């Protein structure tokens, strides 16, 4: 039955799911109409809300573009490429491949959402290439879906935006809820149970939706050209020894790479020693940058690898402003507050965490940023929590679970993965939706556990 569900949803996504850019436009129109009908805004006010938010994700867009490019360059280095190949070679068939990619993605996502997203995407691509090179037919769309599962678990992990924000001195809700350490959120019994269940069950969910019939499998060479697959990952120097000029010697200088790479790593070590394990996007990109420079050996090899990686960032650059506009309309029109209040109004002490989770699932479709969603929905949920006798940590984590679950049907985060894997949203979203429906019950049941 689960396999049939995956097949049905995949067929539906292939037939009806448009390109992610069209999806962003359609979602913008839906929110525009909701603001007029539900929030009582005028069309002109909604246009202003849209434009006020439109450019608010420029910094984040650049961070995401760098994650794709710099992460690609690390995986493209000779050493990491060999490691990924060795791990991919352990899969003997398509089902094993899907399970291994899903497990790696889930572990990576619990460490850091950015790390898990890039690691999963790079590993899925390498797994597909490994199957192609070894003559093993692997279902590449499901490998891409398995890689995306990092985004279904991340907010319960070490990079969870809401629990990390409320544990930070000076956060915007400190006057209301104080400082809540991660021992009460990320490491409470409820969330530990969720983490264990995610590690055990989520990779199995990916395995369960795998098609039974080998004729239904779509290998990587049906998505990516054979010429590209045949290209070696290791970049070769383009200058022969007798053609070396002073300029070309600098281009291929290992000394320059070591100076820059080691200098950057010294700062990163200092950062973690003074600030603890605070893995921000900037630090993650810094790690990718300086490690990549060292792994490639020479500046020009690194430049060529980065140039190749930039092919996957067009979706980020084009679509993220539209999602910023959607977030601007949701927040400024009051739609987030209205949706949240609907669920607060029907809640009891027992059901409030569950309804917080469900409402967060809905809001995440329109505000697909963990930190952004906490900023607009968090104040409403924590305001009602004490009146209903529900603890702040439980409310925070219930919202976090909803924020992460519906990433599976929201192409916003998939854009980076699609850029690396070469897949289209319709290849991934159908399977991801089937896994999301199964995963719903992990987090729903967790909301009734003691926090």
TrEMBL record:
It comes from the Bacteria. InterPro entries: SCFA_transpt_AtoE. The chain crosses the membrane at residues 21-42, 54-75, 96-123, 143-166, 186-209, 255-272, 279-300, 320-342, 354-376, 396-421, 428-449. Keywords: Membrane, Transmembrane, Transmembrane helix. The keyword Membrane applies. The keyword Transmembrane applies. This is TIGR00366 family protein. It comes from Ferviditalea candida.
